[in-house]
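Per your request, structure below.
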């Protein structure tokens, strides 16, 4: 029995389900099968990093905390950005 996430909920995928092979459908190592433009090319679904220069110091600190990155909020914004990028 396989599962996938749909709108934050686990959904059962029947064992006999065969996804259509349209050149865009692909399966990732975790078993997730889906289709989208460019699916036949190598890619990841990792979150993109935001534009740190456009963020406030407070927002930088919050983003770092959400992403388990240690940053000193007493430093300058430029120093915070450098620290965050160094820990990515």
């Amino acid at each position: 029995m396989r599962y996938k996430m749909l709108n934050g909920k686990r959904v059962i995928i029947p064992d006999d389900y065969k996804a259509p092979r349209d050149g865009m459908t692909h399966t990732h190592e975790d078993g997730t099968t889906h289709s989208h433009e460019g699916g036949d090319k190598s890619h990841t679904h990792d979150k993109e990093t935001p534009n740190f220069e456009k963020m406030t110091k407070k927002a930088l600190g919050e983003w770092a905390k959400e992403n388990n990155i240690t940053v000193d909020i007493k430093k300058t914004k430029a120093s915070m950005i450098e620290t965050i990028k160094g820990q990515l």
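The chain has two domains: 2-33, 52-86.

Regards,
D.
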